Structures are given as structure tokens and as C-alpha cells.
Automatic annotation (TrEMBL):
It comes from the Bacteria. GO terms for cellular component: cytosol; glutaminase complex. This is Pyridoxal 5'-phosphate synthase subunit PdxT. Transmembrane segments: none annotated. Pathway: Cofactor biosynthesis; pyridoxal 5'-phosphate biosynthesis. In the presence of PdxS, forms a dodecamer of heterodimers. Only shows activity in the heterodimer. The gene is pdxT. One of its GO terms (molecular function) is pyridoxal 5'-phosphate synthase (glutamine hydrolysing) activity. Its EC number is 4.3.3.6, 3.5.1.2. Catalyzes the hydrolysis of glutamine to glutamate and ammonia as part of the biosynthesis of pyridoxal 5'-phosphate. The resulting ammonia molecule is channeled to the active site of PdxS. It comes from Streptomyces tsukubensis (strain DSM 42081 / NBRC 108919 / NRRL 18488 / 9993).
Amino acid sequence: TPLIGVLALQGDVREHLIALAAADAVARPVRRPEELAEVDALVIPGGESTTMSKLATVFGVLEPLRERVRAGMPVYGTCAGLIMLADKILDPRSGQETIGGIDMIVRRNAFGRQNESFEAAVDVTGIDGPVEGVFIRAPWVESVGAEVEVLAEHGGHIVAVRQGRALATSFHPELTGDHRVHALFTEMVRAAG
Ligand code: GLN
């Protein structure tokens, strides 16, 4: 059974721990480099990406995160977590850093004021039947490099991607009680051995 960490600096950590347990993984929170070293894979939760980036620097875990992702650790980011996995942010706040790992440019808070939070059925490659997408001040993916597989779009915008062992969604499957996306990630972790 894979041991999957949830980056627990900020955001909806608890919901991911519950979703991963339901998807037959063993899950635990990760804050420090020593804790990161113990897990096989990592989920980066939703929350606020600027705050998460600053806390990652304060906790001394930003560089270790970059190294593990570069070395091929399976990783899944939702919403702010998707932003953390982007190689480039279109509109970063000052001092905002990312871990990177997915060759994409993201736009923060992309769906705009009229539509800050909404739900929509989303078809995701690799999952049978639509997923209930919960979007909260969600980013979208503006563009992707050749190595990136687009798994889902909503309203003509990219909202789920995969590159190698890195998976990211603009929406929050951890808030719905539907654990199929977490199960997909757990399968990626098992396949990585
Ligand atoms: N808008 C947030 C950010 O820029 C993300 C929101 C979320 O994770 N629900 O980090």
C-alpha cells in the first residue's frame, strides 16, 4: 500500500487525507523535509498558492519538494496545488514561487468575479462518466508544452493535466465524496512502484 503525503502548510489537507484513505492509500500530513523523505508520493491541496509558497520557504521544504518532483515522485495538485506544480504563473504575486514539474502556464483566479465559485460536470480522460467539478477561485491552464497531456477542459479552458507522474486539476475532487480522481492518482503511485 503506497504511503502518500499531503502537504500540510495551508489549505484543505484533512479532506485530501480522507479521500486518499477512501482510495486505499495510507495518507499522512507532510510539513518538514524529514517527513517528505518518508512518503512515496504527495498531494498538494487547495488553498492559497501565495501563502503556500511563502510557508514552503519558511519551513525549508520548497527546495526538497522541487528535488523530489524532479526525481520523479508522483504528485497531485488541486487548485492552489495545480498552481504550485506549474513551471510558470502568468500573473504571480510578488515573491510567489512554485515547485514546478508541469510544463504549463497557469492563470490564477481565472474564472473571474461573476463566477468565483461554481460546480460543473467535467469529463476527465481515464475516468468513466463525468466528475463533479467544484471550482473555487480556480485557476485555468493557459497553455501546455508538448509533454503535457490535457485530461479535461471546461468552457474551452484546460482544467486537468498530466505530465509523467504529475497530475493536476483546477477543481477539488476532495470536496465531493467522489474518490475516483484520488483512485486514479493512487494507481499512478502503484504503477511508479
Ligand atoms: N485562488 C487561489 C490561489 O490563487 C486558489 C484557490 C483554491 O485553491 N481554491 O491560490
